[in-house]
């Protein structure tokens, strides 16, 4: 299964969504507050979201793990 990452980080209220590439359904969504905490703690970085497709898929895996930890 592959995913698409949509990140609107330059907005006043940044948003990051991960969706299933085949169905388009959103599987993870991080709000501004959650994203700021992730970036501040160093758990993800802007470089993580700008890499190759393989690197981005690794970042998605990390986001899945982080989302379960936060739940």
Set down the secondary structure blueprint.
Layout: E1 3-8, E2 15-20, E3 26-30, H1 32-41, H2 53-70
Antiparallel strand pairs: 1-2, 2-3
Question: Could you give the order of strands across the largest sheet?
Answer: 1-2-3
Count of alpha and pi helical runs: 2
Q: How does the helix and strand content classify structurally? A: alpha+beta
Helix content: 25-40%
**Biggest sheet: strands, sense, closure?**
3 strands, antiparallel
Domain unit count: 1
Secondary-structure element sequence? EEEHH
Describe the global form: globular
Short summary:
This protein is of the alpha+beta class and 71 residues long. The protein has helices at 32-41, 53-70, and strands spanning 3-8, 15-20, 26-30. The chain has a 3-stranded antiparallel β-sheet with strand order 1-2-3.
Give a verbal description of the structure.
The protein contains two helices and three strands, in the order βββαα. It is an alpha+beta fold and 71 residues long. It has one domain. The chain has a three-stranded antiparallel β-sheet with strand order 1-2-3. The two termini are 23 Å apart.
